Amino acid sequence: MLTELRGYLGQSLFERVAGPDGAANRARIHDTPGPRWFGPDRPIRRVHGDASMFIGGISALLLQSLHPLAMAAVAAHSGYRGDPWGRLQRTSTFLAVTTYGTAEDAQRAVDQVRAIHQRIRGRTAEGLTYHAADPHLLGWVHAAETDSFLRAHQRYGAHPLDAVGCDAYVADTARVAEALGVIDPPRDRRALSRRLSAYRPELRATAEAAAAARFLLLQPPIPLVARPFYAGLAANGVAVLPYWARSLLRLPRLPVVEDVAVRPAGRALTHVIRWAMSP
User: Where is the ER-bound oxygenase mpaB/mpaB'/Rubber oxygenase catalytic domain (predicted)?
Assistant: First the structure.
């Protein structure tokens, strides 16, 4: 009975994250022979293959929303409200291909994303123009994502990285960022911290960012039976945000509650996900 529960839960999670073509994509990504961008011992493989990514992904979306131009592009073109699961599945497939797939497949995935970015242009409600292929905006999205994934992994990962491994993870992600068009991405934690600080004067919680936070935290397209499970992941996604990002989004910090309830729940949930999705 426990084996059946594990299989059901693991398959359900996999289908949600990977989509209807997930099994075929997984076989292609992992079984196709050929050189890879990252070898088996690289930290990017450890981080992106861990259950902590469920928390890191939520945190990354909240943090990325704080750049008005990036958020305007997401709100107008990503379809995150109309097709949230499709967006998640496309993103997870891109991460899987660039992290584990052959170099040829990784480059093809990057080229497809760059072609999409070239077409995404528009104006914010205030009349500011944006272009998804702008290296400056790409740099923000990359820095926010890398910081969020690493923070979540270091707190909830099965095998957190040491200091050298953390720097190596940032360097690994820079390989993908450069391919996407980011100019001089950070290659260690210190450079990543400086890059995030450099963006801070541009950040604020726009109406679109507030709407995205409400959608992610309060109105997710999740069946009622799974809401408590998701709420635990979302609470931990908020908990790993930098303090200044939480302040901008007006997400309160409750140290006692987080230490006593939120963090233990995050550890328990990631343990269950890891158990269910292990081969």
Answer: 45-275
